[in-house]
Amino acid sequence: MTRNPHPDDNAPLQSRLRGELILEALADMIEKAGLKIGDRLPPEVSLAAKLGVGRSTVREALNRWEGLGIIRRRRGDGTYLTAPLQAMQAMVPLTVRLEGEALLHLLEVRRTLEVDVVRKAVLNASREQRNGISKLCDTLLRAVYAGKPWRGEDAAFHNAIYEASGNPMYGRILGQLDGAIDREPTSPFHRDEFGLASFPLHRDLADAIMAENEAGAIAAVENIVDSVMAEIRRIIAGGPAPSA
């Protein structure tokens, strides 16, 4: 069995080893050093020397971690660990696990905002807006069940709910959250199949808004978020990912 190189080995990482191996080696180094959340990482120059790679390679890896909320850079002070790190477990790549954990944190924020959005939509939506939300849900589900592209239909459905809430800031903030995590093109969380199990629950949400059922709308949002989070946890635990 081939073993991933460790910073303690005499032979440095070869320059061709990028991406996943660099992230794995960095995580292994941090884990062995006993660094915890709030601790400062060694300087980039030191990390590069220990790994036997260029400083730009280390910086690229740290940029990826910063985008996932794993580290935080403080100008003139250094780089600090803001989330736990462990080297690769089983067959789950580190990047997939870290991306999944970042998405779980993001969904915790989205849950709070989405619950407030649907509550206000139930209270403030006009009859025309309620009908529009229901029709957009029909369009979304037809696309999903037919195996057609659905992202545009999904955005239209949720944007209609944001507008019905009467507060345009919800749509703007939630839109920014969608771009908060840069997903790798090969990530299982980037595929169209990811999250499909949650789409039938969108019908429950639309029906609750249509019926002016606040409790039902909130429950539907909670179920949607729970469904997506359960899928993420299954993937990062090594379970089956959505099929391509």
Short description:
It is built from 9 helices and 2 strands.
What secondary-structure arrangement, pairings included, does this model have?
Blueprint: H1 20-33, H2 44-51, H3 55-67, E1 71-74, E2 78-81, H4 94-124, H5 127-145, H6 151-164, H7 168-178, H8 200-210, H9 214-236
Antiparallel strand pairs: 1-2
Helix pairs in contact: 2-3, 4-6, 4-9, 5-6, 5-8, 8-9
Give the end-to-end Cα distance, rounded to a whole number of Å: 28 Å
Question: What is the helical fraction, as a range of percent?
Answer: 55-70%
Looking across the biggest beta sheet, what order are the strands in? Answer: 1-2
**Count of helical stretches:** 9
Q: Element order, helices and strands?
A: HHHEEHHHHHH
Largest sheet descriptor: 2 strands, antiparallel
Catalogue the unreliable spans: 1-17
Radius of gyration: 21 Å
* Percent of residues in β-strands: under 5%
What's the multimeric state? Answer: single chain
* Average of pLDDT: 84
Overall geometry:
elongated
Q: Count all strands and give the number.
A: 2
Main structural class: mainly alpha
Explain this structure to me?
The protein is mainly alpha-helical and 244 residues long. It contains nine helices and two strands; from the N terminus they run αααββαααααα. It has helices spanning 20-33, 44-51, 55-67, 94-124, 127-145, 151-164, 168-178, 200-210, 214-236, and strands at 71-74, 78-81. A two-stranded antiparallel sheet has the order 1-2. Strand 1 and strand 2 form a beta hairpin. It is elongated, with a radius of gyration of 21 Å. The model is unreliable at 1-17 (pLDDT under 50).
